[in-house]
């Protein structure tokens, strides 16, 4: 598996990122990878946790990206798992079904490099690019 492509973009106070994927499934996996890679401040280790199932209804692509990241951030806050591996599927019924695994936070560090509080709607967009899709997301720190 190749490393997902993402960028940290300039922003005055929050974390602004761009994610890339050849399709929506790859874009969602890239977004999760980029968020947790930046939060950890280190290369993501292999998963050791149990699997967490995530199911979301497919809405507009930008809202789905936000909902996916918000759900993973909620699980990070409540389950104390830094997610490092994902398997995302968009079904024929337009639903996102995903399995996420990671590493218990206490096994990695005392606190994350970045304290991400929320996924905002501000500046949220998904656009088509020659390589597939690009999402831009701003996270409240």
Describe the structure.
The protein is an alpha+beta fold and 141 residues long. It has a single domain, classed as Archease, Possible Chaperone, Chain: A, domain 1 (3-Layer(bab) Sandwich), CATH 3.55.10.10. The protein contains 3 helices and 8 strands, in the order E-E-H-E-H-E-E-H-E-E-E. Strands 1, 2, 6, 7 and 8 form a 5-stranded antiparallel β-sheet that branches. Strands 3-5-4 form a 3-stranded antiparallel β-sheet. A hairpin with a 5-residue loop joins strand 1 and strand 2. Helix 1 runs parallel beside helix 2.
Summarize the structure.
The chain contains three helices and eight strands.
What attributes does this structure have?
141 residues, alpha+beta, Archease, Possible Chaperone, Chain: A, domain 1, five-stranded antiparallel beta sheet, three-stranded antiparallel beta sheet, 3 helices, 8 strands, globular
- Supply Rg: 14 Å
* CATH topology term: Archease, Possible Chaperone, Chain: A, domain 1
Beta-strand fraction estimate: 35-45%
Average pLDDT over all residues: 93
Pick out the low-confidence regions.
none
Could you give the count of β-strands?
8
